[in-house]
Structures are given as structure tokens and as C-alpha cells.
Design goal:
Blueprint lengths: L12 H12 L2 H14 L3 H25 L5 H10 L1 H15 L2 H13 L7 E2 L4 E2 L1 H19 L2 H28 L18 H10 L2 H5 L3 H5 L7 H30 L17 H8 L3 H35 L18 H18 L2 H28 L11 H18 L2 H25 L4 H4 L2 H16 L12 H28 L1 H4 L1 H4 L4
Antiparallel strand pairs: 1-2
Length: 524
């Protein structure tokens, strides 16, 4: 039984854009500027620019995918069509692992800011929530689920209102900090523009929460099956969200760097340790009105982001169940409320498993950010494969033959730039996903075609790990920069073309290039 028929097409452009912006403007803006500056100093501006370019390229890729085949859980379904069950299983599980961590991350962000008033919630020395802080975070996560449980309509109304509020606050913050207490000298003092080298600004793309902050746009992809006029509204919502978020985050980083009190820079940028970053700056320059607005927004922004992520990640579970990687029990949409309620509950339970051991905003995002890059990179393959086999008549974007390989290369570079110590953990998660698939493959006695269609992914993960190990970002430093990054880019381009050829072969071998044609061109 296809339960997707119960999904309600109630989201218009504004509701979809609000869902995407709601995912972007969460705890990332409250903490990302601080963490990026701590790691890279003023060069953290480069961090946001690089991350923004990567997300814009990826956004263009998924805009076309949303035009040719709008589908709830599309991040999981697209690789299933283009490269088979192994790629879809590994990427789908990695997406789920990475993004099921968002509600606990946002809840942890709320707790850290609220601890300004209730210090017993957060231990500044250890950087972890206390027992009472964890309990409060769990209560917040439960609220995110309840709002989504009662349907797309309630979600859209609540989220559109919340997004409008939380977009105003960072805008006010930018204006206020530019006008009061902005120190342009901070960009050249305290170690200069790049106190830890340009390499630190590149590494921070993955480890400082930049990717985590930007990836909210994926909500527009996951909810595309519930959108009115998706061929217009999905790409428009994606690109609108990414462009707004790039401008917003760069400006926030600039005012943060110029606004940090001089006393907090006595030990350099790496010594900046603020419990509630923008609130601490506001109170240091006596902007009490901004201080209290930020106090309220520290609850509204992360909560609004989690409303969006809780909704979209439930659709991922639905996609995994449709692809038979999760039990059919989760391929269920409530006939009255029009939401995958069982998936919501599953994600809540797994979210608890992220929250309790890592106990902080940074503790979670530093491990999961790179998983998002892996999963987004696959879209570049799918969009090109669909074009090659003639399925993209529903709408195409000019220049995609350039955007798609560039998106794959930039994604690969961001993975490589991640610190080796963090990348290792992400690799173990990916290996676990491969193992889960191979066990499923043997039990179901599936065709070897499903593995052959995804051979490129095995090669890709292995090669990136090897290059990162011998590289300059926490690795053995056998080849200096920028030569190692150039090598990574060239190798990534080669793997991109291998993956596309792999996908074209798979779709023609299985006949999907013909059988899917009516679905792809529906409404074209």
C-alpha cells in the first residue's frame, strides 16, 4: 500500500521558503559566528563564503531535481533511481544519522543560551549540559514532535510565523552592532586577519557548524511532495533560501568579529569563550533592549529550526521505508493528519541517543556536519544521470553541465578540509551504513546490479579517506597545500564522471530509464 497518497499538498512558495529558512536560521546563527571566529579569526568570513558557494551550487543541483521529480524524501529517492539500492541505502542512512541529530542540537543550543539566566543548566568549564539541562532539552524535543504530529497545516502556520520573527532578530542584531561598539581594528590585530592560517578557515567550513547552518534548505527538497506547483515553487524556495542565508551569515560574522569585547581577545581568537555569544556582546556595549530580544530569540530560532527539521527528517524515514531499508511499519502516513507519525516518534527516540552522550551544541555538530556534505554530493550524480538517460524534460537549469561537477568537487574539498580526527568518526558511520546494506542485500538475495550501480561510492569514500590521511588537515602532511587540494579536486572530477557512467549503466540495465519516464514527466 502506498501511504504517500495521504501526504497533503498544502505548502505554497512562502510556506516552503519558511520551512527552508526555518532550518537555516536556527542555532547556527547564534553559535556559528563565534565558533568560526574561534577557529579561524577574522578569516572566518572566508569560511562562510566558501560554505555559501558550495551550498549555492548544491542548491542549483537540487532545484533541477525538484523540477523534474518533486517527491517527499527526495534526498533518499533520487540516488535510488540513478544508482541503485546500495547508494540509496548508504546515503539515506547517513542522511538520517546526520539530520536526526538536528533537534537535539537545536535543543542544546536553547539550553546553552538560557543558561545565561539559569547557570545550573550548562557547565561552561566542560562545555556540556548538566543533568537538568539535558532534561530541558528533551522536553523541547518532545514539543517539536507534537507540533509536527498534528499535520502539515499546523506546521506551516506555526513555522511561517516563527520564521518571520527569527529573521527579524538577526537583521536587528547586524544593524545594532554595526552602529554601536564595532571595532574595525579587530580584523588586523590579535594575530592579523588569519591568525591560524587560511587553512583554518577552510577546515572550519565542516567543523564550526557552517554546513550545519546552511543545510536547512534541504527542507524544501524533503517536503517537495507536499507542495502546490512544485516545479515552480521548489527551485524558487531553495535558491531564495540559500541567497538570503549567505548574505545574512556573512554580515553576522563581520559584526561578531567587530563586536567582541577587547578583554575577551587577550588570549587571541582561540581564547574567545562566550556562553551566549551575541547576548554577551550586547550586554558589553549596554544594548539591553537587544540583549532581551536575543534572550527571547535564543528560544525562538533553534525551536523554529527544529520544527522544520523534525518535519523533513520524518519524510526521510518514509523514503527509507519505501526503499525497503527500514521496516514497512514506517512506510505509514496518518490518514487524518497527513504526516508520517511513526517516523516522527522513531526520530525522537534516536535523537535522545545523540543528545545524552555528546551533551552540547558543538559536540554534536562537529561530528555530523560532514555527513551532510557526503549526502548532498550525490545529487550532482543523480541530476546528470537523469539528463543522460532523457528523464529531465520536466525542467532543466542552464549551465547544469558546469554546476553539477563543480558542486561535486567543492563538496569533496570540504570533506578533505575537515580535520582528520573528526573525519574518522564520519567514516566509521558511513562504514556502518555499508555494513547494514550488505546484510540487507544478502538477506533479500538482491541482484548484484544494485551493488555494481554504486561501485563509484565505494571508490569515492576510500579515495577521499586516503587523500585526507596523507593531506595537510590533521593528516600526515606528505604533500603541502595548495597542491593537495588541487589533487583532491582533479580526483573528484574523475570520480564524478565515473559515477555518472555508473548511473547511466544502472538505469539502462534495470530499465528504469523507460519505466520512470511517466513519473518524471508528469505535469511537464
Amino acid at each position: 500500500m502506498d501511504n504517500s497518497k495521504y501526504l497533503k499538498k498544502r505548502l505554497g512558495f512562502w510556506s516552503l521558503t519558511a520551512a527552508a529558512l526555518g532550518g537555516v536560521i536556527g542555532s547556527g546563527w547564534l553559535f556559528g559566528a563565534w565558533k568560526a571566529a574561534q577557529l579561524a579569526g577574522p578569516a572566518s568570513i572566508i569560511t562562510w563564503i566558501v560554505g555559501g558557494i558550495a551550498m549555492l551550487l548544491i542548491g542549483l543541483v537540487f532545484s533541477e531535481l525538484g523540477m523534474v521529480k518533486p517527491e517527499s524524501g527526495g534526498l533518499v529517492r533520487y540516488p535510488r533511481y540513478s544508482n541503485g539500492r546500495m547508494v540509496s541505502a548508504v546515503i539515506g542512512l547517513a542522511i538520517w544519522f546526520g539530520f536526526v541529530s538536528n533537534p537535539p542540537t537545536e535543543a542544546a543550543g536553547v539550553v546553552q543560551y538560557v543558561s545565561k539566566f539559569y547557570p545550573g543548566l550548562y557547565n561552561k568549564t566542560s562545555g556540556h549540559m548538566t543533568g537538568s539541562g539535558i532534561i530541558l532539552a528533551l522536553i523541547l524535543m518532545a514539543i517539536f514532535v507534537v507540533v509536527n504530529y498534528f499535520g502539515v497545516n499546523l506546521f506551516a502556520k506555526v513555522n511561517t510565523f516563527v520564521t518571520a520573527l527569527k529573521f527579524i532578530v538577526p537583521s536587528l542584531t547586524i544593524i545594532a552592532l554595526f552602529s554601536s561598539g564595532f571595532h574595525g581594528s579587530h580584523f588586523s590585530q590579535y594575530g592579523g586577519f588569519a591568525p591560524n592560517g587560511i587553512g583554518a578557515s577552510l577546515s572550519a567550513v565542516a567543523t564550526a557548524g557552517i554546513i550545519f547552518a546552511y543545510t536547512g534548505f534541504r527542507n524544501a527538497i524533503d517536503l517537495s511532495g507536499e507542495v502546490k506547483n512544485p516545479r515552480r515553487n521548489v527551485p524558487l524556495a531553495i535558491l531564495t533560501t540559500i541567497i538570503i542565508s549567505i548574505i545574512l551569515y556573512i554580515l553576522l560574522e563581520i559584526v561578531f568579529i567587530g563586536g567582541v569585547p577587547g578583554k575577551d581577545l587577550l588570549h587571541g581568537w582561540s581564547g574567545v569563550n562566550l556562553r551566549s555569544p551575541f547576548m554577551d556582546i550586547a550586554i558589553s556595549i549596554n544594548l539591553m533592549w537587544l540583549y532581551w530580544i536575543l534572550a527571547a530569540d535564543s528560544i525562538v530560532s533553534p525551536s523554529g529550526s527544529s520544527f522544520s527539521y523534525t518535519a523533513s527528517n520524518a519524510r526521510n524515514v518514509l523514503g527509507l521505508a519505501k526503499n525497503k531499508f527500514f521496516p514497512r511499519f514506517f512506510d505509514n502516513v496518518h490518514p487524518k493528519f497527513g504526516v508520517p507519525t511513526r517516523a516522527l516518534i522513531l526520530n525522537f527516540i534516536v535523537g535522545i541517543a545523540w543528545l545524552i552522550p555528546f551533551k552540547s551544541w558543538y559536540g554534536i555538530i562537529s561530528l555530523t556536519g560532514i555527513l551532510g556534505v557526503y549526502t548532498f554530493s550525490v545529487g550532482s550524480i543523480s541530476v546528470t544521470v537523469f539528463r543522460k538517460v532523457g528523464l529531465s524534460r520536466g525542467g532543466t537549469i542552464k549551465g547544469m553541465s558546469v554546476y553539477a561537477p563543480l558542486a561535486f568537487i567543492v563538496s569533496s574539498l570540504i570533506i578533505y578540509w575537515d580535520q582528520w580526527s573528526k573525519l574518522q568518526i564520519s567514516i566509521w558511520i558511513l562504514l556502518f551504513c555499508f555494513v547494514v546494506y550488505f546484510i540487507s542485500h544478502l538477506i533479500r538475495k538482491e541482484s548484484g546490479t544494485e551493488i555494481i550501480g554504486g561501485l563509484w561510492l565505494i571508490i569515492y569514500v576510500a579515495v577521499i579517506v586516503l587523500l585526507a590521511r596523507i593531506g595537510d588537515f590533521g593528516g600526515l602532511k606528505l604533500i603541502p597545500e595548495p597542491w593537495m587540494s588541487i589533487i583532491v579536486a582533479i580526483v573528484a572530477l574523475g570520480i564524478y564522471y565515473l559515477a555518472v557512467a555508473n548511473g547511466v549503466w544502472y538505469m539502462r540495465k534495470t530499465g528504469l530509464d523507460k519505466s520512470l519516464e511517466p513519473e518524471f514527466n508528469e505535469g511537464a
